[in-house]
Amino acid sequence: MTLQNATDDISLLGRFLRGRKWYGAEWYITVAGGLILVAILSMTFLTILAPSVLPFDPTDNQVGAPFTVPGAGLQVALVLADFAGTIDIPTGLADLEKTPGVVRGSNGNVYLSNNNIKRTRFNDLTELLAGLRSGEIVVAVVDAEQAQTILADHGSEFRQLGEPFGDRYWLGTDQRGRDMLSRTLAGGKTVLLVAVLAALISGISGIVTGLLSGFWGGVLDRVLSLVMDSVYSFPGLILAIALAAMLGPGEINIAVAIAVVYIPTYFRVVRGQVLSIKEEVYVEAARSLGARPWSVLFQYVFPNVVPSLVVVFSLNVADAILTEAGLSFIGLGLQEVPDWGWDLSNGQNYVAAGQWWMIALPGLMITLVTLGFSLLGEGLSEIYNPRLVEG
Amino acid sequence: MAEPIVKIENLIVEYPSHYGMVQAVDVPWLEIRKGEVLGLVGESGCGKSTLGMALLRMVRDPGHIASGHIWFDERDLVSLTEREMRDVRGRRISMIFQDPMTSLDPLQRIENHLIEAIRVHEPQTARAAAYGRIVELTDRLGIQSRRLPDYPHQFSGGMRQRIMIGLALALNAELIIADEPTTSLDVVVEAQFLDLLKELQRSLKLTILLITHNIGIVSELSDRVAVMYAGRLVELAETLPFFEEPLHPYTQDLLASVPNIELDDDQLRIMDGVPPNLIDPPTGCRFHPRCRHAQSRCSRQNPPLQEVAPGHWVACWRDE
Predict the structure, then answer these.
(1) Are strands A75-80 and A140-143 parallel, antiparallel or unpaired?
(2) What is the ipTM of this complex?
(3) By the CB < 8 Å criterion, does B9 face chain A?
(4) A158 and A193 inside one domain
(5) Sign of CA dihedral A155, A159, A162, A168
(6) How many CB pairs under 8 A join A and B?
(7) Full domain range(s) for residue A351
């Protein structure tokens, strides 16, 4: 078989499945990209279909104390070493004669407050321990990490009552006490919704205009090409910023602002493909059988354009995610919904103070999703590129 | 003599280019008769394929039919609207293309190609009914019906060219234009293909315009032969007289340059010169710069196509 036969004549899925034999490395790139995406997408769909898998409400301020370190948040009840009574931890805390003591702004305070348990608040740990010693309070609720230090230093004086209780914040909390894990999981929904919507909007408009422009040519083609080239000449993010500022907030508006930037990408690819496919002999043969222009376009030309579109779409979603994150980062994105770009821009203010976790995960997720779509797109483009089949 | 199915009158096809207008076809007169195989021969670039495309009004852009008439079924194809012309294509006149490897859509099954060929013109025909017809048709072409759901790449070149005939025959077109149908086939497959075409032509009484540069194929299949040189028709004759007594100097040289098993090596002629540039063609007879019998008149006046013997037409001053 000649080079051309080997690639041009096999269906999309067939080519993909045979890819392993033909392409080696590129095939694995595609699979790797695909796996990353499957993982992230299934996670995102899970959070959309069953929001209860989120540990906390991602938009709820004061889920925990501000700036909780990742993995922290569990509470321990401390009593004096000679404390004789019994308390069910944590349910018994509500029924005490003397309310349990907590430090203001600590996770213990937030926990008791969230569970409607009255408590006595102290300004810091020293005052809390002093209160315990003086008998002002009977039980002190402190973070599990602090309890370990206290018990190590004053082991003879205090003891731990019952098991640790309360909520653990696996990825910490932000400055308003929102759970970062929940925000990161829920943020995928926003980002992917906007990115895929943007890719669909730009895809549909770009494909339709590209098909018409390439197929009919003439004045229509010149006008459309001119318009698309003008749009293309703008730096993408700048144009998106201008449009986003003009349209205002909202998922659809952001998606449209991003979509406009990428319409020329589809337009160019489709138009170029149509120009070359319409010169193919099989298109001429179809015309010689009396096929109408519309059926030539949709039956013979369009299906042959699709393979290149798969690639463009995948790369386009990756770009759209970055643009969406970029818009959110500079504050033109969505408000009041969990969003990686917003978290990233919010978290950067606290990095210098040592709160690294607030940007780490949103940043990682943006990188991973973009990487996934890019790998998939690059891999597919290698697989569908007939020039690379040799050997 | 069978009645003519197509009559070409003063047909001129032009291609605009940066250097000027190229007159690719300038045929004053040509008839294709019902039930015959008319061989149209000439070297590359002489306008024979353009003439074939002109019959379907499918000359490639920016080429176009500048003037003339193509009479078919009492209508002038040149003056039909595009919509009316679409109705002619496939149903009344169909075409077999040169390269079967590229003339089938790689993404469509064979059965779909054939069913579409029928349903383009008969949208009321159900797919099942159309399927029944294509099974019958492909059976005749030697393609098993179990292969119909296959894609073009699963077929050999010879098989694909048979499918192309199937597409051309799907609606019993009255005229089939075969544009170098065997050029891309190897010799054995070519022989099989020609046998099939001959058999089909006889049993279905097809009218075929066989465009080729292969004199051998013409001698085997054609009833009549037309020779084109630099866009013009120079000779038209029945096949036997044509080969026995070619009259135009170009035809004589052409036939003499074809290897023949009865000839010795030193008798094989090589024609002098090259075909003219059609942007600035020679005045008068376009062959005169290469002609061994050129007279002064040849460079001034274009010789008309004249009947010098019954059914034998030549455009040469020498035969006047």
Answers:
(1) antiparallel
(2) 0.85
(3) no
(4) no
(5) negative
(6) 80
(7) 3-56+179-388
